[in-house]
Amino acid sequence: MPTVAGLGEKASDVMDHASERLPGAASRTFAILLSRLPAVDNRPGLISFLIDGAGEGKPGGRPAALTDAALRGRLAHFDAHSANEIAAIRKALSVENGTTTVYENWGALDICLRFWYGFVGSRIRPIESACEACGQLNRGSVGGSVGESFLRLCRCGQVSLITVPNHMPASAAPAR
Length: 176
Ligand SMILES: [Zn+2]
Hints:
The chain is an alpha+beta fold. The chain is built from 4 helices and 8 strands, in the order αβββααβαββββ.
């Protein structure tokens, strides 16, 4: 019997864990694909996520990226992921372009999307910035806490430090 779960066992561990949490037939398991984006100026990139909603015949949300803190908050929120699983996720994402998949049970795709895109405190929002060198307007949907910063690489090669702005929309509508 293995004492340490290797990377090869991770997927089945996650699946077992997911099925334990299945409360009823109304719930479905969604795959959330996480990828570490390329480093910028030797600083680790953001983490992109994609919710696999193919089973319901509609796209699983628009492309978006999270800061590490924003991902941690989501994974910890319902206590749905074990410490071992979170450690395995962190390890997989510790390398540039590292990818992993987490599984979560939700009643419907919409509820899963609302959680991942509308998470209180690090809601996914379009963040625009003008490149300091060439003036190009760059934008991307990012989930991060107000005041957190990340680096953005412009096509011209200029790196800008972007700080998550402090404008929280009052609307409770899910970000779609
Ligand atoms: Zn530029």
